Every structure is written in C-alpha cells, then in structure tokens.
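1st attempt posting a full record on here, be nice pls
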Amino acid sequence: MVKPKERFERRKRRTRWWIRKLAGGKPRLSVFRSNKHIYAQIIDDERGHTLAAASTLDRELREKLPKGSDKAAAREVGLLIARRAREAGVERVVFDRGAYKYHGRVKALAEGAREGGLQF
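the predicted structure (as tokens):
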C-alpha cells in the first residue's frame, strides 16, 4: 500500500515534470502551503537560482495580516511576489502548484500574482 506522503511526492514530481517540459525557458512560480503559512518563490531552473520570494512570514505582511493561513493572506503574498518579480525583471512565469489542487489558498495566491502584473 502506498503511503499518503509517497502519493503526495509522486503528484508533485509529475506536476513539476510537465511544467519543466512545457515551460520554454520561463521561470516557475512555485507554491508551498503549510497549515499556518503560505510561501511562493520564482525559480530559474536553468541556472538553479531563486529570483524572488515571498511568504506570510515577511515583515511587511506579518504586521498587516491577522493570520497567515487564509485566502486573504495568500492573495497578499501573490501581490508581493508579483511586485518583487517585476523588480527582478520577470514578467512571464509558469505556475507550479506542486501537488496541491488549484483551489482555495493556492488559487488566491495565483489570482493575486495576476493582479500584480505577472503573466501565466
């Protein structure tokens, strides 16, 4: 019997494989969510560098948000990552949801990043 953690890792690998195949040289916007926070980073896989990162633990957002585990916080992280990406010269990315469904906090982060000017 396959354990839940193994299934999660398989889904993540499968998603990342497709993203890297279809990316066409664009950096990817990777999302990680825990029970208390949400994290996002833009990664250039060709060079192996993180170009921009944001999370609910950033000083700007920690003071502003009552908690880091809701859709409002995820949207703010999306707006922040979009702003930092534009500062780094990134306009177009590929969205990497990992093994998470595109729904809830992950969807809110993606919509916030689109509002902030990122294209994917």
